[in-house]
Amino acid sequence: MINMHQDGGSSEIQLVGIPRTAEWGSLKPRVVRLLQSRAGSAAATILESLAFGLYSGTNRFADEFSLLYLSASIDQYISFAEQSKASESKGLYSSIARTVNEIGPYIRFIAIGLDSKTTDLPIQSPSLAITSDTVERALADCERLINASGAASIDGNQLTGSLPPELAHLAP
């Protein structure tokens, strides 16, 4: 997980429950408007264009906090990892958190996680070592052996009948 903003304490994040959609739905437009009015158009654009959700979180110390969380594709995740190193980017996300804090819940983190449900990587077909042609040839060979030598029968757990020389190594 990438922390675009962290306000003290442990950096561990465990999401708790589902997104607080109703609360965030009414809060987000007001935060965007405040950011725009404060010449924070870049921060407002970030918040407006990305599908952050408002979540409750915890950590191993049982701290409880609110955070903005985005589940990103692998390409987005890579891009956010690069952005997280830039101080300008950190400043924009901190501005978002401070503005939310003014009119809504205290935001301890703005975090990006890798979406585990989708993949941007192509899934290749497996390369089978045994093809259906190989199986068909094996079945045809078996049929020829049975026709030539007769079938072995099973009597209880004992194998009776004679095995052809090609299969003698299978006899108990």
Number of strands: 7
* Strand percent estimate: 15-25%
The biggest beta sheet is recorded as: 5 strands, mixed
- Per DSSP, the total helix count is 5
- What are the low-pLDDT stretches, counting only 5+ consecutive residues below 50? none
Domain count: the total is 2
Strand order of the largest sheet: 1-5-4-3-2
Shape: rod-shaped
Q: What is the end-to-end distance?
A: 59 Å
Order of helices and strands: EEHHEEHHEHEE
The pLDDT mean sits at: 85
Helix content: 40-55%
| Structural class determined from secondary elements | alpha+beta
C-alpha Rg, in Å?
32 Å
Kindly describe this structure.
The protein has about 170 residues and is α+β, with helices and mostly antiparallel strands. It folds into two domains: about 1-115, no CATH class; about 130-165, no CATH class. About 40% of the residues lie in helices and about 20% in strands. A five-stranded mixed sheet has the order 1-5-4-3-2. It has a two-stranded antiparallel sheet with strand order 6-7. A hairpin with a 2-residue loop joins strand 6 and strand 7. The chain is rod-shaped, with a radius of gyration of 32 Å.
